[in-house]
């Protein structure tokens, strides 16, 4: 019965998440302690950092990103403005 329930839950999960998301969730399932989870999170953060750096380098090489564009980004206000209560 438990196996059937687990398979059913996996099928439901597969319809909600893409393959990468499912794989990451399955990887976290093997983390049995805080240290393992931290190590896996560090690996994922490093991967994401490398992907972002490669994209930033590509944008820089293509002239889309430059010093002026970075200054403009730094001057942007990204927070959603609060509305006064009426």
N- to C-terminal separation? 56 Å
Please work out how many helical segments DSSP would assign: 4
Described by the principal axes of the CA atoms, the overall outline is extended
What percentage of amino acids are in beta strands?
Answer: under 5%
Taking pLDDT < 50 over at least 5 consecutive residues as the criterion, the unreliable ranges are: none
Domain tally: 2
Q: Classify the secondary structure makeup into a structural class.
A: mainly alpha
Indicate the mean pLDDT. Answer: 83
Order of helices and strands: HHHH
Q: What's the story with the biggest beta sheet?
A: none
Helical fraction: over 70%
> Whole-number radius of gyration?
21 Å
Number of strands: 0
Write the layout of secondary structure elements.
Elements lengths: L1 H15 L2 H11 L4 H28 L5 H9 L11
Description of the structure:
The protein has helices at residues 2-16, 19-29, 34-61, 67-75. 0% of the residues are buried. It folds into 2 domains: 1-30, no CATH class; 32-77. The chain is mostly helical. Helices cover 73% and strands 0% of the residues. The longest helix has 28 residues, at 34-61.
In short:
Helix content is 73%, strand content 0%. With 86 residues, it is mainly α. It has two domains: 1-30, no CATH class; 32-77.
Which short descriptors sum up this protein?
single chain; 86 residues; mainly alpha; 4 helices; 73% helix; 0% strand; extended
